[in-house]
Amino acid sequence: MLEIFPFLTWLAPITSAFLLIVLWRELRPRSLLLLLALFALAGYCQFFAASPVAGPVGLGLQTALSVGLMIRWKWSS
Questions:
Q1: CA separation (Å) from 56 to 39, 42, 53?
Q2: Got the DSSP string for 21-34?
Q3: Under a CB-based contact definition with an 8 Å cutoff, are residues 22 and 14 in contact?
Q4: How confident is the model over 7-48, as pLDDT tens digits?
């Protein structure tokens, strides 16, 4: 990631976490568990995996999760 914008790697996980908190009552338990597992997997890949390929894959998963949750949040309101 660019050194000029080091906070960009944190934008997708923060957005995903916020939207999971907002939507936790509207989601079914099984889908909430699946989304939480996806959030944890993407966060692990993005921040803790040793492979140089896993970081961008985790960021992509986290971004896709946050975009999907934003769409769901807009449709539910």
A1: 14, 10, 6
A2: HHHTTTS-HHHHHH
A3: no
A4: 888 999 999 999 999 999 999 999 999 999 999 999 999 999
